[in-house]
Amino acid sequence: MTIGITGPERKVPRQSAVVGLIIAAIVIGIFLILLRLASDFLVDWLWFSLVGYPQVFWATIGAKAVVFLAVWTATAVVLFLNGWLALRFAERRSTQLVAASGWTAVGNAPPNLLSLVRDRLPWPQLITGGAALLALLVAAAEVGNWAVFLGFVYQVPYGADDPLYDKDIGFYLFSLPAYILIKNWMMLALVLSTLFTAAIYWVHGDIEYDIHRRSISSTVIAHGSALLGLLFAVKAWSYGLDRYLLLYGDNGVVVGASYTDVHLGLPALWLMIGLSVIAALAAWANLWVRTHRLPAAAFLLVVTGSFVLSGVVPVLFRQFFVKPSELELERPYIERNIALTRQAYNLDQITAKPFAAEQKLSFKTLDANKATIDNIRLWDWLPLSDTYAQLQEIRTYYKFHDLDVDRYWLDGSYQSVMLSARELRPSLLPPNAQTWVNRHVLFTHGNGAVMSPVTRKSTEGLPLLYLRDIPPVAEGGPKIDEPRIYYGERSDDYVIVKGSTPEFDYPKGKDNVYAAYDGTGGIPIGAMVWKGLFAYYFNDPNLLLSSYITTDSRIMIRRNIGERVRTIAPFLRLDHDPYLVISNGRMFWMQDAYTVSSYFPSAQPVQDLDLNYIRNSVKVTIDAYDGTVDFYLMDSGDPIAATYQRIFPNLFKSFSAMPADLQRHIRYPEDLFLIQAQLYQAYHMEVADVFYNREDLWQFPRQPGGGGVATMAPYYIIMRLPGEPQAEFFLMLPMVPSRRDNMIAWLAARCDAPHYGKLVVYEFPKEKLVYGPFQIEARINQSTEISQQITLWNQMGSRVIRGANLLVIPIENSILYVTPLYLRAEHGHLPELKRVIAAYGEHVVMKETLAEALSALFIEPGAVRSTSSTNEEMSVTRPSASQAREALDHYNRAVERLRSGDWKGFGTQFDAMRENLEEMNRHSADQ
Which of 124, 397, 723, 740 could share a disulfide with 428, CB 3.0–4.6 Å? Predict the structure, then answer.
């Protein structure tokens, strides 16, 4: 006899304590996440309010919240409904199975682990929590697309239709991206629902898959068929959207819809829509049939149809029908690609003009283009950066991050200058000075700038400094009344201003000068609650404990100008080179911003940049002292900028509201110019036949650089265009034919009002050889005099540095080439401008100054020979002393005019000297 003794169930030791710890850890984790989100929200709110854009903050937060809640709600509902249905059907079946095969006999094996888990889990709560968690992850991933959905809601029509579907291009810029995101979300939600329900069915035994048994219940088949039908329905819509995506294809000949796409791909997509609808109906019909064969057949129907209609047939059609007559068939689609690409990048606004490339330069034309000659840039970035660093960084913690080229009216003349801000880098302090107080309280700002003209140099070969030293000393440059730089290109850490101790301002001899901030930049941090907020935000308890923070203190964050602009307007793409502007005694940063899209139909995309449409619609200014950020709308006709203006009505100001002096310093941005120049290499060809054959393909010039061959970069220059009354500030770049080095054209962007933003290309006669930069470099290297001198310098312990760019200078209808040459001691870091190399026509010369180089180029050979022969005759005939003295006087005056840059006076005196010499020669001949 077996006696069973029962008693209280044994408890797992400390089980409740472990569960409690897990729950506590989850609660603490959620609390910390919410605390981080709350601190980020509060800091952003304070910062946006202080910089003057609270409406942008609330509009952005509202858009993110709406997108998040909409995606989370929709995803959670879809997942919960599918999970609830799966649980309901699975529970009903499992109850039936338990009733049919319950274990009642003593000694039967107990249920397996899966059964225990199934019976003990709180399924309704688990499904609700699982659906909410998965929806949370999906919503978090989708919230970053808030700008796409706002663009869809507030979109502005483009004003032109695409030629294939006759839809306004605004549909492709704003609606199509939103539809694609919605379609992708629907596909993801259905896939997650399938996996979610499959897990529930598997736990409940409706899906069995092991080495002994593989089975799927009819309930699972029915539920799966319903989801598969929905998936096919979404796929049908996806094929409908794919019709528009044909406009972004690239078969190597046509970017956009090609002949194959229009005549085969488009009908194939309509057929795939039909097959997908049939597959969806077949899957839904399986709700009653409940067999795996019907869904499998529907799936194979769509997959096979897609493989054949979208893969095999188009390839065969293009290979055997299109390619034999490719140009004839693709011609209208090539024309569409050309027209829409030119439209997307404003290439259709480029004015093409002929350039005669004559050899008619003289002293008279040089004098008529004195502004061009006086602004030929002889200082390159790298040598000048080294020179600035050696002469003007003053202390190791000051750095000149970047050199900018701009133009100013100085002493009544329009001058091109190079300038750089002297920013402070606390990270460069000595290691024992890397304290919290030094980095965040004392060393808070840079000071002043350095400026020099692009052409002039001292007798030692160093740049003449218009602005120098700390505090800034102006000698020919603009005066700086507020030189302190709290916001810059390399300001990346927070600082405290208006503290209990003055800030370091600048060194003075053995002592330091200190100053107190009196601007409005920064966020008040005096109250204990704000100290605690920022201490948590930066994970820095010093903000809470430091006695240097007073009730009037302010904390400056996001001091990097790029980060500052991106935080306010993350939908704008920024140019890589913000530049410094000195205006009315204050220092400003000018930042170019772009509106871009990758959905412009039939337009050539830019490699590695994910865009096929770009406009420089916004100029941004940032005050270097108080961080004030202003956005100015340059192109109100840009539909993307106009859409953002509707979304954020208080973000953009009219360009006319920009201070007049700042308006004079806007310049055409280099990134946009490079993109346009790169595309114009092919898209200047507007005839489809020429474009197809690449008969007139251009490329950027080659030039020696970095120990090898580099591509020439665009450069800013002041010059006078042919036929224009005055000199202007330009960004320009020469062009050469593909795989050739002779020059074929030069492209220029005008930077001055009233012609700002206009592009012009000057094309050389195709029957005339015009030397390109690489060919001129070769002629320089072949010059015996120049190569011998360079070799001699290198042997004497100096290092010769050639200019980064050989400058191509258009003057009237001729081309002048100029490049500087620097010397640097073998172990030194101070380059000196020692020579200027100039080339014109067949002549190449190297002299100490630009004036001497040009003088050597343009002295007429006949005059030189005449002078030489006259001198020989003078040694025999001894002409009158008065005539010789007069010739010598003219010569001395000519030299004086040359040194002062007075080309007209030089030419006049030189001609007079020649007349004297010719007269003396005639007298000698008569004798």
Answer: 397
